[in-house]
Design brief:
The chain is mainly beta. It is built from no helices and 11 strands. It is globular. About 30% of the residues are buried.
Length: about 110
């Protein structure tokens, strides 16, 4: 059973930064991609960023976060990160980690002045 534990969410002002972490257990982390999704109230869950496997693995971003968010992974620590800069009010959502077909419990990100 794969378990994913997210952390790093919180309340931040527009223009601020947050770094989300997702620690995986129960999987061979290196052989699976990892992704961050988000879901705002009333909206469908949407892909934010994806990190493939291997050295220089593929990364993909939603158009709305390109240039502001960066996904990275530390295979030795079975952890995937999402660095979020220049946050906007519209980034407010619950952020979920996805890895090996499993979901984390989510972490709330609120961007508000």
């Amino acid at each position: 059973q794969v378990q994913l534990v997210e952390s790093g969410g919180g309340l931040v002002q527009p223009g601020g930064s947050l770094r989300l972490s997702c620690v995986a257990s129960g999987s061979d982390f290196r052989i699976w991609g990892a992704a961050w999704y988000r879901q705002a109230p009333g909206n469908d869950r949407e892909l934010v960023a994806f990190s493939g496997v291997g050295i220089g693995g593929t990364t993909k971003y939603a158009d709305s976060v390109k240039g502001r968010f960066t996904i990275s992974r530390d295979n030795a620590k079975s952890t995937v990160f999402l660095q979020m800069n220049s946050l906007k009010v519209e980034d407010t959502a619950v952020y979920y980690c996805n890895h090996a077909g499993f979901w984390g419990q989510g972490t709330q990100v609120t961007v508000s002045s």
